[in-house]
Structure formats: structure tokens, C-alpha cells
Amino acid sequence: MCSGVKTAANIAAASDLVRAAAADGATFISTPEMTHLLQKDPQALRVDVRGMGEDAGVAAFSDLASDLSVHLLIGSLAILRGDGKIANRSLLFAPDGQLMAQYDKIHLFEAAISKSETYREADSYAAGTVPVTSVVGSLSLGFSICYDLRFPALYGHYARQEVDIITAPAAFTVATGTAHWETLLRARAIETGAYVIAPAQGGHHADGRKTWGRSAIIAPWGEVIAKLDHDAPGFICANIDPAKVAQARQRIPAWRGSAL
Fold it and tell me: Which of 31, 76, 117, 231 could form a disulfide with 35 if both were Cys (CB 3.0 to 4.6 A apart)?
């Protein structure tokens, strides 16, 4: 996606892509980080953010999952918490539209890319504290978001839980995406023996930032099995085979008996 600062337009764009993926046969669909609002200005963000019960995206994507009878992971939304702080939150909806699980991004992005390009996500968001797992049919799922990719301890937790899939929705900058995006995704898949599904923001956004795109699906042995080779909106699909997870962990049982 190339989400902007208009929530309704972003919801419509996401819904169109989700419907296209479902029409192509997808039964589990994931969207990027900050699906319905990509706004780097803290004051402007606070004007638009809503709680779970009032957020237009929560209602729209619940209905969409139900309409399409798919598991729908919204990579993240900016959600106002009860304590007045803002969460960067993934939401997993069941095929009947019910909310199955939610995860608040634990590691908040902080970087000084150049003198003119700096980021401090903690200025706008409050960090989550708890890893989250859920299920999609017979498959187990671990949650992460964007900057979490740089902290392998989180993925070690999911490896010990023996999840089949780890989601990594993102909005990587062009500089960090060029240098690190695919390398980090493949490393997380290899070290955990899990599929990594990474839908990404891409392009020049209305708030002024530029993101790398290149959404990808990585298999447990580290090979890229689906990828968008550009930063324009679109979708990719791949078959997820749990036997590949078992095979990778059998070949290299790195987490067997590990307590660290």
C-alpha cells in the first residue's frame, strides 16, 4: 500500500486489495503497518486517532473479513488506548469478523538516517510489552511489526512456541529497506524455521515520507517464495505448507530444548 493521511481513502484502498487477494484464492490475508493512517506529525495524528470502539478501520475490516470469509490480519492501525496513549496495533479478524487477537508493537522505531531524516516513534506511540500468538486454521501465528525485525529475541520466543508463521507488516524507509529489508526477513525465517509474511508500505506518502515497499513471503529455509519487486500498491500470494516448517526444524533443530 501507499497509505496517506485520509483514513477513509486508506480503508477503501486496503479493502480493494484485500478483495483482489481473496478473489485470487487467498484465505489468510495480511496488510501493511499503519494500514489506514500514515501520519508522522504527532499533533495531526492525535486529531485523527480513535479508540477500538470508534475506529472506522476496526469496524470496516471486521465486516470485510466476514464478507469474504477469510482470516484478515490488519498489519497495524494507530489506536487510542484507554490511558490516552496511542498503540501501533495489529488486529487479527476471524472469517466471521470476530477479533481473534491483537498485538501492540514492542520495539518503537528510532533512527537518524540523515540530518534531514530522523524518526522517533516514541514521540507518538506507547510500546507494547507482550508477544502474542494466535491460530489461523491449523496453523499457529506469531505477531511482529516493522522495527521488531531488528530484535531477534522476540522471534526466539516465537520459535520456542513453535509457530508456523510470523507476520512482519512494515513501513521501512527507503534507506533502511535498501540495505536491510530482505536480509532481516530471511534471517528471521531461517533462525526460527517459520514462514515470514511481510506486507509493506511503499512509495511517496502524503505525510512526506518515502517507504521501500517490496512486500515478501519467506519460506522456513530462507528462500523468497513471493515478492513485489517495486514500491507500488499490489499484492502477492503463496501456498503455506506446514510440512516445510517441520522439515526446516528437523534439518536444523536449533531451538530444541533451548531455554534462552
Answer: 31
